[in-house]
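agent> call fold_tool(seq_1)
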Amino acid sequence: MNQDQYLGSSQLRIKLQTIAADIHYLADSYQGNSLVLLALLRTLEQTHREVRENLFQASLPDNRQELYALLKDIEEAGGWPYIERMRLRELLKNMTLDNSAPNSSSSRD
């Protein structure tokens, strides 16, 4: 089967949109709960890794024409999928901002 048939499939687009909407709904439902949101991010990262290692790598082309088509698609359609991790520096910056806010309890002493 032609790869374009899969990529252009409205059924596939609908399924992917549904998955994305479910993820957004779940994240919105737990807004402010960093532990739950961290668990969600870890699950997404683990799923990404499993799909990449167990399914994607096995499906890589074994001839130059198909490899060229894949690389061309990667280049034209937005690059390589990547899940960015929050840098520790950004996390610490958030803590610094919280600590620099005026503390009303210290003014009572």
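agent> call fold_tool(seq_2)
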Amino acid sequence: MKFCLLSGKAFPTITKLTHQLKNVDLIDGKLVNINDDSIVIDDRIADKMHTLKSLVSVFIGSPWVQQNLKENVEAISANTKFKPVVSFSKLREREPMIVNSLTKISNFLSVSAQQRKLVRSAICPQVTQHRIWTGALEEILNGLKSVMDSLYCESSGKGSNMGQQIISSCLKFLAHTGISDHECTSWMQLGSHKSVNPQSSGTWEEVLEMFNDLIRCLESEKGLLYHVAKIEVMKEGLSQIKDVLVDKGIGYKEARHQESLVQKKLSKTLGHSSRCLFTLLLYYLYGHVRDIEVDLCGGIYGGEGGARFCLCMGRILTSDEEKMVKSGVKQLDRALGLFKFIWETAGMQGVLELQGHLWCVGAKDRTLTHRGTLFFVHGIFDKK
């Protein structure tokens, strides 16, 4: 089963670009070298990556590919109850997607307005817990700090220096916001306003102001745009809790009350379309805040009697090496799992099965199973 290009000129271009971009992937809105996880900041490479994925997307829609894809899936599905379908045949199914909001997922799954309310009411109490809120903020700040440390390890400008100072201040503030360490005796002691250290008290508005300053410092830094965008997203939540007190010197019960206020305010004000709410959901489910990128959004294909459905999505790789394939599988698995989570939370009818597809020049055709989900690896070959 070798997929063939109809255009003789396209395949050499795809092969050349794949070789030039070997082991580079687009993750979290930035180019990353899979071998050492280093960030690649180069507009030319970004353009080449876009060109490669666009060409392969066209290739996947060709009759040759569709026929072989159908045969491959049928062979694998021969002993299963699910009826195989041809996927990625339509142009809209081969469009890229950045999964960054509940609204985008709900639109894709055709979730009704009533079901969206159900989804929001189900997830809000969980994802707005104080530990999730502060954990997500710390994840964003530490991620930004890590990138800045790697980008400016030798030299940095005034803006980046100030940005690093603000990040440090934010992290120190967050370290005083919760009682996550229930073993800490200082938190269990009853507090008194008379003994409170003025420097230990404040409100969440301080973090909001620091986030505004951080954005102003770093908004022109090309390599930090993704992280700065995340800072901007979280301002929505901060603006809703800016009057809530943060005080290390108060007693345990009062601290619990302040944490409860954070949860109540966030749960009440963050709507279904909120990017901030979606970021909290990502952290709640996966322990990170990274948006999920899919090269081929695919679609939902109906099974027998409409009782079983299959969600197919795809990724385009620049290498068939194990680490690259694993990275692609993990990216797809998170996307597929997130869609299934919303499907089930919304109470959609029918069982949703998941299927991932990965394409790479010269790859050996095979299947992989990751956390119960089937993934197909497809090789891209010229017509013989």
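agent> summarizing second result for user.
The chain has two domains: 10-100+294-380, 115-286. The longest strand covers residues 351-361.
agent> awaiting next instruction.
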